[in-house]
Design goal:
The structure holds two protein chains of two kinds. Chain A is an alpha+beta fold. Chain A is built from nine helices and 20 strands. Chain B folds into two domains: 180 residues, Rossmann fold, CATH 3.40.50.970; 128 residues, Rossmann fold, CATH 3.40.50. Classes of the chains: A alpha+beta, B alpha/beta.
Amino acid sequence: MIKEIIMPKLGETMEEGYIVRWAKNEGDYVKKGEVLFEVMSDKTNFEIESLYEGYLRKILYPASDTSIAVITVIGYITDKPDEEIPEKPQISEKKVEPKQTEDAISKEAPIIKQEKKSVDEGRIKVSPVAKKLAEEMGISLSDIQGTGEGGRIEKKDVLYYAEILKSQGNPQYEVMQWTPFRKIIADKLTYSKQNIPHYYLSSRFLMDNITKEKEKKSKEKKITYTDFLIFWTARTIKDFPLLNAAVVNNQIRLYKTIDIGLAISIEDGLIVPIIKDVANKTIEEISSLRENIVTRAKNKTLSKEDMGEGARFVISNLGMFGVKNFSAIISPPGVAIMAVGTIEKEPIIKSNNITIAETMWVTLSLDHRIIDGTYGGKFLQTLQKRIENLEI
Amino acid sequence: MREITYRQALNEALKEEMERDSTVFSAGEDIAIYGGAYGVTADLWKKFGDDRVKDTPISESAIVGIGIGAAMTGMRPVVEIMYIDFIPLCLEQIANQAAKIRYMFGGKTKVPLTIRTEGGTGRSLGAHHSQSLEAWLLHIPGLKVVMPSTSYDAKGLLKSAIRDDNPVIFIEHKMLYNIKGPVPEEEYTIPIGIADIKKEGKDVTILSYSRMMLFSLEAAKILEKDGINVEVIDLRTLLPLDMETIKKSIKKTNKVIIVEEDTKTGGTGAEVGMKIMEECFDYLDAPIKRIAGADVPMPKSPVLEKIAIPQIDDIIREVKLITS
């Protein structure tokens, strides 16, 4: 069995002591009550007798001019001369066994200061007012180290901890401040999810024709899938005017021109500028406008004009990240948003044969207050047909 | 303001009340010709004569008994029990008669009796002349128990005790008689049942009374230099207890020490502390601390006597512990 030898606390005020000499060498056999080492504290030297019988297995702190905090383990006494001992103990946290305490109290023996513990058999020791205060401040008592009698958490400990939280934060996490931009996004999306009854329609589009067309057109000017989507969506909305609606002040507004919002990710958030009157524009015109607006969004040089009177139909494309499909949150005051996934080759069944085709998943989020499922379904079906066949 | 001793203040209160109201008279052992063991009734006999300042036989039971009888028949007696240590001799009269008569007669009679007595250590008078027995009296419904610590409070409270229609035990302290304090020339009274904040503070509340109040104030003064801001409340009246003032203070400081000269077990602090537990638990930031007399018969040796009761150093030590 291993017994710890500790730097004794020889008086109320003693916080540290010096080992003047060891009366025994490592490996010596020590009897209980024999002088083991000599300690200097404040001004006086004390000879400390061994509390145990056994071999002085290890001296962790030889005599020196360096002070050692009370209750630091300074050596070990073992039953056998070759017993295994711990690597690197620092401060004894073990509660002293009752029998040892008796010994400790006996004449000239060290008084052992126990670690202050705020938790006693699972119960947190806390003063009534500190408990109430912690509750009010939303602070968990288990995080606080009490400094009161016997480790009791007092009011000042709660206030001190609250001060630390305020100045340094919790060591387990950092606190990120809301930017005004982030706050606007948060408020808007929360409003949308809480107030607009969303529902979702998904469809798989075959993209072979559009891919061919894109390659053909791109020889002159680079056209993207998004440009095609804007182009065809605008033309389809023409036949389904509810998709172009906006709900403002409880009023359903049906706009005469078809403007399409584009969800663009920028440095610290998301922005939805509008490309105006797209139903009357050619694919090349749309492409130029789109390029221009994306560039300005990234450079943060969008004007109020670019934002229109708020979003209407919005296209959100995460295809470039390989996202297959996703559901987006409607951007008020608009009533629909179209979430577009990646374009990839998939096996499809055509006339009972399995062939390979370019596919793209599209998910519409719709405001059920304005648009019912059949209307939305017909819109999606029409859009699919037009994109797959490139004709009205 | 002029300063007079605690003894003079009491003497003035008695004289003024006897002048004001012809039903007020004093009776007790050696209070007339000799002027009282501690001189509180000095010169009253010369001024008011045999009828109103009476020496009695050495019978505490008779002294309180005549007081009760006189009170029931329209007088306002102030009787003196030379040492509180003699209270057991007349406890039957106090506990079973004075305290209960008004209740048992359905309010048809009243007992406007003041029992002046004195207690405490400090003169090395041994176990029979040094006790602090106030806690015994707190246990008797129907009594009021008053224990002033200053000349000002002594005068104002004795006048209120005499004018009160119920039996009031007025406990003086043998070591306070010679201590001077400011007392105005003009007439005033202090209501029974109201504590007094003798020093404002924010770190800890000391509740005390009688001589220990002065020790507490002295300790508070020393602690102030160490940056510890003690609020010292003089309870002044132990029964009824001014819980409002106590509560207000504890809400502010959250910590309480009761300093009392009586023996700790079943003492005044036990009652005051328990009331605080009942009414102020949510405001406490540490266990209520009692600094009280040792549970021993009071030793005659002046050295041991000092050890047996709280000292200023004890108060300083405990305040430092509770506020550290």
